[in-house]
Inverse folding.
């Protein structure tokens, strides 16, 4: 890189210039998704804005502020903060063991007085930050060496196991998958992934083989969820109820949907958790296939913009972080939508930015703040 | 970290390659999701739409209002009374126990009601209304209304329940309703979904049962939307049903009331027919019962009382009872013989008090005999031997045919329970039913209404009406359905020789107006209302006994048939008093009183009675517990 070039291409400075250099398409897409969320929260509350839609709007406004603030902060600051963030989130995960509030049969919350925090949420981002920083630091030629593969694996498994203890299988899987995604992007040899898939297949066998023994890997309720996923009709009024009713709601929406606030399945409470995990079902019921495709397209566009931003970014940390966060977003909505459509078992994964919930939204907005920071603070 | 430019370039290449792989995979998965969505929402949309509708829509039946029943004058016989219920909704009540204890201090509630309410509340969803008690008095409703603030979750509701304002008077005619039982469902073969409604009321006996389809009406329905827990959110559509048809019967409440009272404590039945059109003005059976008890749910003790009573209050003897008609049947034998020409009215038969047939001796009721007897005296004095003689000449086939011609031995299609067909025996019948040949002795027994002959009080009244009018009167019970007059059946001339009929009628006139007639004691004074009749005393057992010395159930049945006025008959009456002794003593006085009541439309003047009876009759008129017709409500609207 010549001196002249480095003069021409520089990292933007100054508030206005930084703002102008932000990845505005992503901000607009996030806002559009959030607005779909407000609309649906208004609908499932039966036209009551105060119940879910208003709090969600306030959080989103706060989230946008946080995103911009994080985005204005130089990316190297965040790279330096990766380790702190990771250790902090581990501390929270350990703390939830003692101070956690049981919700939905699991210890997942810490009540901080002003906000109820779900520590598994920041853990996802912290993990991605740490892994991106790790691969940024690591000599590129060592990436696929066993010892250097083992380290990130341990980094992934520590929070994953802590989350699994809560027990929250869904988030644990997301942590592993998200971490794996960053490792994949960083260029770890495909052989390892092949090996992991083989081990995973073995593990699944083990999970089913140990069922009913003293060493069974999963909790009983998790086994039951798998059972009902494989055959929802076996328990139509019990655990399979959720899947069955969700598919009915989706299907009854048809091409054009039943109309805003006209979804009978959600309005009449046949649909469970309609404001959180199953909110996509309500959308698809009321706005039909068209509505579902619209939202799916918004998510997919964000992925595209993330990938474009990552590929054009010469900074290894920034690129990996952007890919990791985009991948995390993908995992969220893909698992959630697959779940409500009966493609995967019911695991408690919310639909990002649309499901009602504070921690998830704040963490996601913060994550996209990192994406913005990566986007802004590169040579232009 | 600082990397060499070569490493940075290598890193960028790798990341780009992996990012594109990653992006491709992500887009591919989004494509999978799209396909899945298309499968659910486009390919299978109809199926899931149907399932969603099944989830939320429930069709419920709206029971129709049951048709009312009136008597011939428009008095109410069966109505749908307003029934106040008190209802609790748990989720509105909050502390159920407290509310219930407050309520039980305000209105009378049985422990049974409270226990059942608690059970229901525990079993049902909190928003389901549970009935605490029914048939509240107006005072209770008012007390609840005033105390509403202290009784959260408590409401009163108006339902309908069947009520019979004349109570026991029409119990056997109108019958009663009750909730559908499993037995009913099995028996009725009725696909009407209304029957599946819990505690839906259907006719159990009498007109209520036999005219069930006319009275029931057609169910309406309403489509409601429910949520996942079954709570009704709103009503989407409602189609009113058709109310049941209104029935007007031919019966006269006042006359029936009097007749039942006049039958008193006897086990007896009386029928009054209009000789012109066969209208049944009265079909009384004593003792009776209160059908309202059955609607409310009769207690076991009451029910046992009714079933164990040897007078059989539940049986409608007017149409269900079948008795040997005794001497009233002599009309049939006489007309059969006269029509066949085997005897002339003036021809006499010698009655020595018995008739010897082979080695069997058939007795006349008068052991000393009647001497020379012709048609008139045989009927007037009810000589048996005359009819034994006629029976031998005319034979059972012609007697039986005449019985059927006069209305016996056939079942009338009336909407009452267990209408008896009686029996006009023939050779073929005995061969079929008993496997025995008919014998002459059977004919002799039949000729005086004993042996195999059976007739219901209704059939005896039909016989009297047919003799009176000379036409084939057929009884009718339903006068109008929803205001549409029902046709009068029968009425064709019997085809009997007019002179023969006149002579028989004259003999019947003499029964109660000639000094030697068996019913002279029950005659009517006043030429306009002269009565013609025939007594009957039918044996329950084959041995003739003195009635005072034997237990009630072995005594003779007392029968009387009559009509009046003699010159222009309007009403025919039959009375059967089970084990009442003699027709002249037990049945004829009742029949006379009933006939007079019918003719006068109420109590007759005392001078219609023979002078020596008047004091007794006045006392009876003063003491009989009759219903004041003014207390009964008339039909509103069309007459």
């Amino acid at each position: 890189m010549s001196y002249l070039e480095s003069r021409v291409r520089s990292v933007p400075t100054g508030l206005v210039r930084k703002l102008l250099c932000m990845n505005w398409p992503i901000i607009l897409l996030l806002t559009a998704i959030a607005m779909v969320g407000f609309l649906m929260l208004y609908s499932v509350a039966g036209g009551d804005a105060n119940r879910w839609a208003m709090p969600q709007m306030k959080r989103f406004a706060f989230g946008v502020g946080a995103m911009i603030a994080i985005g204005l902060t130089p990316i190297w600051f965040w790279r330096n903060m990766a380790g702190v963030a990771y250790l902090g989130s581990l501390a929270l995960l350990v703390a939830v063991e003692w101070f956690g509030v049981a919700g939905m049969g699991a210890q997942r919350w810490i009540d901080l007085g002003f906000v109820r925090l779900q520590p598994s949420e920041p853990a996802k981002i912290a993990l991605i930050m740490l892994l991106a920083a790790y691969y940024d630091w690591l000599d590129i030629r060592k990436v696929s060496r066993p010892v250097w593969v083992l380290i990130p694996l341990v980094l992934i498994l520590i929070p994953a196991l802590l989350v699994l203890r809560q027990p929250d299988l869904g988030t644990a899987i997301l942590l592993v998958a998200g971490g794996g995604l960053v490792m994949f992007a960083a260029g770890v040899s495909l052989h390892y992934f092949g090996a992991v898939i083989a081990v995973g297949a073995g593990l699944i066998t083990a999970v089913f083989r140990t069922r009913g023994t003293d060493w069974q890997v999963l909790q009983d309720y998790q086994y039951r969820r798998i059972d009902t996923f494989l055959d929802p009709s076996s328990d139509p009024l019990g655990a399979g109820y959720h899947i069955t009713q969700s598919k009915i709601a989706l299907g009854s929406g048809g091409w054009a949907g039943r109309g805003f606030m006209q979804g009978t399945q959600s309005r009449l409470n046949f649909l469970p958790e309609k404001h959180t995990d199953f909110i996509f079902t309500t959308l698809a019921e009321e706005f039909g296939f068209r509505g579902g495709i619209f939202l799916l397209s918004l998510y997919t566009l964000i992925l595209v913009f993330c990938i474009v931003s990552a590929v054009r970014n010469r900074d290894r940390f920034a690129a990996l972080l952007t890919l990791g966060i985009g991948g995390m977003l993908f995992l969220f909505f893909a698992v959630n939508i697959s779940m409500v459509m009966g493609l995967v078992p019911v695991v408690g994964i919310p639909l990002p930015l649309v499901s009602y919930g504070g921690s998830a939204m704040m963490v996601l907005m913060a994550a996209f703040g990192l994406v913005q920071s990566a986007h802004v603070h590169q040579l232009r | 970290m600082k990397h060499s430019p070569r490493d940075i370039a290598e890193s960028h290449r790798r990341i780009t390659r992996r990012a594109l792989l990653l992006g491709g995979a992500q887009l591919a998965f989004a494509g999978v999701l799209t396909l899945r969505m298309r499968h659910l929402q486009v390919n299978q949309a109809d199926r899931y739409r149907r399932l969603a509708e099944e989830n939320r829509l429930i069709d419920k039946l709206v029971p129709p209002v049951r048709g009312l029943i009136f008597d011939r004058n428009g008095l109410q016989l069966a109505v749908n009374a307003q029934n106040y219920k008190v209802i609790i909704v748990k989720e509105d009540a909050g502390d159920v126990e407290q509310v219930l204890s407050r309520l039980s201090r305000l209105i009378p509630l049985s422990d049974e009601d409270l226990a059942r309410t608690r059970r229901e509340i525990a079993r049902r969803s909190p928003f389901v209304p549970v009935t605490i008690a029914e048939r509240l008095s107006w005072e209770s409703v008012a007390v609840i209304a005033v105390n509403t603030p202290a009784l959260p979750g408590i409401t009163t509701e108006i339902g309908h329940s069947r009520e019979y304002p004349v109570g026991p008077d029409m119990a056997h005619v109108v019958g009663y309703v009750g909730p559908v039982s499993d037995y009913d469902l099995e028996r009725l073969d009725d696909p009407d979904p209304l029957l599946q409604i819990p505690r839906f009321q259907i006719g159990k006996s009498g007109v209520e049962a036999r005219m069930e389809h006319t009275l029931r009406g057609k169910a309406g329905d309403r489509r409601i939307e429910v949520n996942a827990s079954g709570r009704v959110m709103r009503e989407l559509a409602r189609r009113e049903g058709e109310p049941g048809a209104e029935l007007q019967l031919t019966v006269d409440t006042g006359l029936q009331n009097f007749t039942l009272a006049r039958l008193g404590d006897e086990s007896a039945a009386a029928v009054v027919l209009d000789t012109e059109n066969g209208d049944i003005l009265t079909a009384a059976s004593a003792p009776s019962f209160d059908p309202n008890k059955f609607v409310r749910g009769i207690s076991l003790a009451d029910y046992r009382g009714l079933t164990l009573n040897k007078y059989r209050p539940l049986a409608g003897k007017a149409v269900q009872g079948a008795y040997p008609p005794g001497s009233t049947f002599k009309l049939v034998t006489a007309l059969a013989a006269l029509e066949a020409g085997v005897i002339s009215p003036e021809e006499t038969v010698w009655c020595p008090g018995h008739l010897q047939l082979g080695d069997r001796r058939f007795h006349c009721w008068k052991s000393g005999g009647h001497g020379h007897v012709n048609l008139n005296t045989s009927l007037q004095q009810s000589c048996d031997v005359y009819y034994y003689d006629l029976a031998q000449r005319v034979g059972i086939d012609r007697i039986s045919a005449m019985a059927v011609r006069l209305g016996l031995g056939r079942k009338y299609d009336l909407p009452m329970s267990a209408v008896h067909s009686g029996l006009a025996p023939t050779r073929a019948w005995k061969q079929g039913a008993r496997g025995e040949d008919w014998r002459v002795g059977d004919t002799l027994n039949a000729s005086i209404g004993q042996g195999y002959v059976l007739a219901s009080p209704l059939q005896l009244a039909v016989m009297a009406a047919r003799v009176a009018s000379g036409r084939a009167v057929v009884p009718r019970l339903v006068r109008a359905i929803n205001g549409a007059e029902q046709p009068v059946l029968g009425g064709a001339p019997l085809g009997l020789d007019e002179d023969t009929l006149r002579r028989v009628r004259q003999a019947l006139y003499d029964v109660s107006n000639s000094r030697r007639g068996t019913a002279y004691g029950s005659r009517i004074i006043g030429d306009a209302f002269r009565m013609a009749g025939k007594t009957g005393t039918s044996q329950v057992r084959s041995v003739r006994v003195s009635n005072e010395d034997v237990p009630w159930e072995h005594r003779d049945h007392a029968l009387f048939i009559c009509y009046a006025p003699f010159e222009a008959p309007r009403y025919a009456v039959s009375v059967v008093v089970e084990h009442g002794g003699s027709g002249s003593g037990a049945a004829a006085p009742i029949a006379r009183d009933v006939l007079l009541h019918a003719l006068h439309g109420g109590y007759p003047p005392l001078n219609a009675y023979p002078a020596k009876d008047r004091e007794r009759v006045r006392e009876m008129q003063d003491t009989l517990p009759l219903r004041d017709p003014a207390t009964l409500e008339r039909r509103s609207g069309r007459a």
Summary: The longest helix of chain A spans residues 279-312. Chain A is about 70% helix and 5% strand. The radius of gyration of chain A is 21 Å.
